[in-house]
Amino acid sequence: MKCVRQKSINFHLATILFLCALTNKLCDGFLTDNFYSRPSLYLTVNPKNHQIDINWFNLPDTKILQSTILITTDSTNPLTNNYENVVYEFIVDRADGRQATNLTKNFTNTFDINTRCYDFWIFFIQNDQMKVQNCFQLHPTWMNDMKNILINRKVRDLFLPGTHDSASYKRGFDPTYMDNLITKYSLTQDDDIKSQLYHGIRYLDLRIGYYRSNDEKFWANHGITRIQPLSDVLKQVKDFVDATNEIVILDFQEFPVGFRNSFETHQQLVMYLFQELSNYAVDPAIGWDVTLGDIWYRGNRIIVAYDYHSIVQEHSTFLFPSVRQRWGKVKEGFASLEKFLKESRENMSRESQFFSRPYAEMAELTPEAIDVITNRYGGLRKMADSVNWHVTRMYHGEFGRRANIVAVDFYLATNIIEIAIEWNKRKFDNGENYGNIE
Ligand SMILES: *[C@@H]1O[C@H](CO)[C@@H](O)[C@H](O)[C@H]1NC(C)=O
Ligand SMILES: *[C@@H]1O[C@H](CO)[C@@H](O)[C@H](O)[C@H]1NC(C)=O
Ligand SMILES: *[C@@H]1O[C@H](CO)[C@@H](O)[C@H](O)[C@H]1NC(C)=O
Question: Which of 339, 347, 349 has the most ligand 3 atoms within 8 A of CB, as the residue to mutate?
Answer without folding.
Answer: 347
